[in-house]
Amino acid sequence: MQAKETLFADLVQGRAQQFQVPLYQRTYSWSEKQLRQLWTDILEQAELVEFGEKASTHFLGSVVLSPSPQNEATFPRWLVVDGQQRLTTLSLALAAIRDHIADGEPDEAERIDDEYLINKRKNGSDRLRLLPTQADRAQFAAYVRGPLSEQAAGGAVAAAYGFFRRKLVEAADPAAPQDVLRIEEAITSRLTLVAVTAERADNVHRIFESLNNTGLKLSQADLLRNYLFMRLPTRGEHIYETYWLPLQDSLSNDELEQLMWLQLVLDGDGRVRRQDLYAAQQQRFERGEVSEVEIEAYIKELYRRGALFRRLLHPEEEANEAVRAHLHRLDTWQAQVAYPALMLLLDRRQRGELSSADTARAMSYIESFLVRRMMCRVPTNNLNRIFQAVPGQLPLDVAVADGLHQLLSAENRFWPDDDELREKVRKAPFYKFGRGHQRKMVLQRLEESYEHPEPIDFATAQLTIEHVMPQSPSDEWLRMLSEEVVDGESAEDLHSRLQHTLGNLTLTAVNSELSNHPFERKQGLLQGSHLEMNRRIATTERWGAADIRARADELADRAITLWPAPLRGVGRAERSRDWNLAHQVLASLPHGAWTSYGDLAAFIGSGAQAVGNHLANTPGVANAYRVLTSEGKVSDGFRWAPQDAGGDVRARLSGDGVRITAGGAADPAQRLSADELASLVSEAGDPAGSEEDTTQCAPESQGEQTDANSFYLQLMADNSPERRFFRDLAEDNSPRTVEAVRGLLASWDEIGGKIYHLGGTKASGSGATLTLEETGAPDSVISPMGITSGCGLGGTAYLGFQWLSLMEPSTRATLRHEFLRLLNELEGIDHQEREAGRGPAPSFPLSVLEKDRNRELLVEALMWVRDRWKSRDRV
User: Is this model's pTM higher than 0.85 or not?
Assistant: First the structure.
């Protein structure tokens, strides 16, 4: 075997060749966690490219290759024994860059294709430079070859491609722009790999087994500890027992590694990454002859700072009350990103350079910086860099607390001022910002500002966030809102704009009792609350738009007092951040989805007219044509930007998987609401709205959770539409029902049907639509059945008779009656067809499918529909 260091460009460029992922490899499985880390590394390298630093590169890992049995002298083929996750991810990132610049820089896009992605003169599967394992091949090829097809929707490959498309839009943010071609250069020429090449006679399976059965890798802390004590031949035992062992006992291995990294940062290394800790510290030691005295001094300093670090992890160990309160709140916020600045403050205080009062004041600036940015939806992508730079950039000519205030107030730090904070509190959908625990902490601090004589114990109180005006408004709520609409806005649009604003949110322990009842019913419960903010809401005669805005103004005043302002804010000049967020979410629209101007406006806290004007006058916004009127029609004011491909909008929509009805409108079932848009860009592991109304959607009698049900809940923990559908299904139905639905969908797939999952919200539920389609004929689509699950739905199958009545051959009433007759053979079903457009569609509970015979009969009925549909030209 031969090993050499190489770059991605050197590995894949040159003559035509192919890297094949063998069958025994697992499918592509990188999650957003790994993608985020890689993206951070890429941006750091792109920044080094910008400043002309050529020496530093980033080691990405190894790639083990072996000659393929299909190898040819004129077309080398290599088996990827190890490293397929890295190669697949980098290829998808380059495909995303190519597509991102395709309209504006077509020549550069073609160059990326030719150099890294395709073998230009080959056909079929040989055209791909990377050939993934069979399970991923079709989807990967769809993104590399383009244009996208329905085959490309869903899955880990699609998620990775979508991640990079979104991040490229984010990188173009005027607040912190990144040149896309520098990002390409960072990927291809600054991420180093060790390419290990096996000979043909080597046993590839043995190599693979050895690579994947080597146990746990040594952590950075393990490596550094070994390095240190190898260089303490005479003092090692004493130092280990006196300093290292107590330190190691007080911190976990991960915490110890974090402390070692923080020590480097505090000592002035503002660019080192945690994963490079060992190499960076080793390099510092070896700049000269390292002695035992120097090693001992390093460990002693690590031991001293370990006691300070524990206060960040365990705020109750802090003696000063004011400092302890700030540490508790920052711990609740999960503000690990601010650890370099917090450690600096505690370190300076211990050295006598800072009083406890000034330490608390400085921490209030950090808290305000984080809270105001979250409330104003400033992107978090540069927070690591900001706080890691604090020790090296803190002004030397002013006191520490004042210097930190000054540093964080710099214009490129984007600390929102009072005007921007007030505007966001009034208009922006706060409930869709940040993480659940952060939203809850903001409301808790606002409650504490009332200084109630008998304050509630938030540590023991089981409080959740409540929408006073509910997320699912009754007709009574909508009638009240209709009295306040202006400029032709509907009550539904007004509700969508106001429901998630801070003025409409509070904390309560009686979420399920409040539910979506009329305000008069809620007043009594709020009046009896122990929270002052709820009592104040209860004294209001009604709860309409004006009342919500008035409360927002009151809360904004309190927020401005609680969280100090920057010395020099950016104010309204940073409104472009909202539009950049809109661009990101549009770039993330999944295949077969569209949204409306009102939905996009509610998502960013703007107005539908403003959104329309912006899209009409801003060139190059990805998927702008997928923003339609609330009826699913193309707006009269829509026009293509000069560099766009143009063409018929409905044809483009059909090509993107959006179904067009006979009336020329986009299928309303494929429309993404403001809440669903928020889920597209919510942070991994924290779906937007995850803390609200958790009891409101619970079934009346949950009973004992079975092992099978718990399995489904765990399995469906991520936020993809399919898994959200099954998660909702498992929450409201028995495991046997869930299994029956899974079996039904599998049978539908086997007989040639397609399944579209729409992941909704806690208020709207989620669903699966069963369709029959013809490739290349977007108008030839019928949907005989759909399934809904989630809040208030329990689990229902509905028959798409309104849809069927519009499509051949189902326009014939006799065929629809026959379909209904077949369905009525199921035990527990007895429906009559209603006239199309009148009354709800026939439906039945999913529990009917628990009986095997019922499921068999339903599959037979669906097969009958399929056969009639396939023979429609001959009927």
Answer: no
